[in-house]
Amino acid sequence: VTFLGCHQTTKLQYEAAWALTNIASGTSDQTVCVIESGAVPCFVSLLNSPAEEVREQCIWALGNIAGDSVRARDFVLAQGAMTGVLKNLQHSSKVSMLRNGVWALSNFCRGKPAPDFGVVSQAIPTLVQMIQSSDTEVLTDSCWALSYLS
């Protein structure tokens, strides 16, 4: 987590985010360790990184964490992840960024009890735009996210 703060070298930030993304995709206990290490606020902050690959990796990490449990999802949303992910989706045409971003949004929107509608409803205009995508993965995850909101 310390390496996420090394702003002098985005390569090190990317590698640290990649490692933590993989840990967060493991068991729920491993995801909790990533959360308790303080990584989520760092990931959210790095959604403003000048390096697109760092931003994309952080979106992937946040999506993994949010997809683990309702509690993890709510924590990620409370840290402000929605705003940063939406900003990245609105300013990128890179297919992998769109795929990761929309997949993360679908994890932000799913689960019972449902997330705070005031937070997740911010994603609706972006999701409406994404359902016009010609990419099957972007389209599928956009539809899932919208279905979770209904």
Overall description:
There is one protein chain. By secondary structure, this protein is mainly α. The chain is built from ten helices and no strands. Helix 6 (81-90) runs antiparallel to helix 7 and helix 9 (124-130) runs antiparallel to helix 10. The protein starts with 9 loop residues before the first helix and ends with a helix. The mean pLDDT is 94.
Quick overview of this protein structure:
The chain has helices spanning about 10-25, 30-35, 40-45, 50-65, 70-80, 80-90, 95-110, 115-120, 125-130, 135-150.
Q: What are the secondary-structure elements, in order, as H or E?
A: HHHHHHHHHH
- Average pLDDT figure: 94
Radius of gyration: 14 Å
Please report which band the strand proportion falls in: under 5%, 5-15%, 15-25%, 25-35%, 35-45% or over 45%. under 5%
Poorly predicted ranges: none
How would you sum up the global shape? globular
Distance between the termini: 36 Å
Largest sheet, strands/sense/barrel: none
Number of beta strands: 0
Query: What is the helix fraction of residues, given as a range?
Result: over 70%
Number of helices: 10
Q: What structural category characterises the helix and strand content? A: mainly alpha
Sum up the structure in keywords:
mainly alpha, 150 residues
List the helices and strands and how they pair.
Blueprint: H1 10-24, H2 28-36, H3 39-46, H4 52-66, H5 70-78, H6 81-90, H7 95-109, H8 117-120, H9 124-130, H10 136-149
Helix pairs in contact: 1-4, 3-4, 4-7, 6-7, 7-10, 9-10
